[in-house]
Design brief:
The protein is an alpha/beta fold and 106 residues long. It has a single domain, classed as Rossmann fold (3-Layer(aba) Sandwich). 36% of the residues lie in helices and 18% in strands. The chain is built from three helices and four strands, in the order βαβαβαβ. A four-stranded parallel beta sheet has the order 3-2-1-4, with helices on both faces.
Length: 106
């Protein structure tokens, strides 16, 4: 297997759907690489436990990603805490098409 060329040490990564499954596994791998993590999920208790287990530079936000304002607060908090946001990993299990929000720069 070829060695990864991604250098994420010291970078800030926001992961949605981070409480379990692929999101939690990714967070664990990135925490081992000294990445600054902002974990987002609707499952607050599970998410807080993961953040505690990962320790280090990890913050978490209990957020329903279909709620535009709540997601904005999580992003703003991440920027306030780490001073930057380098990567966003959008990961979620299920979302009804009618609840997706179209984001724009306006």
């Amino acid at each position: 297997m070829r060695k990864s060329t991604w250098h994420l040490t010291g970078k800030s990564v926001l992961i949605t759907g981070a409480a379990n499954g692929i999101g939690a596994a990714t967070a664990s791998l990135l925490a081992a690489r000294n990445t600054h993590l902002s974990l987002v999920d609707i499952q607050g208790f599970t998410l807080s436990q993961l953040a505690l287990d990962l320790g280090g530079k990890t913050v978490y936000h209990e957020v329903d990603i279909t709620q535009y304002e709540a997601l904005n607060v999580a992003v703003a908090s991440t920027l306030d805490h780490f001073g930057q946001l380098d990567v966003v990993l959008v990961n979620f299990r299920h979302c009804d098409r009618t609840t997706l929000v179209e984001y724009s720069n306006s």
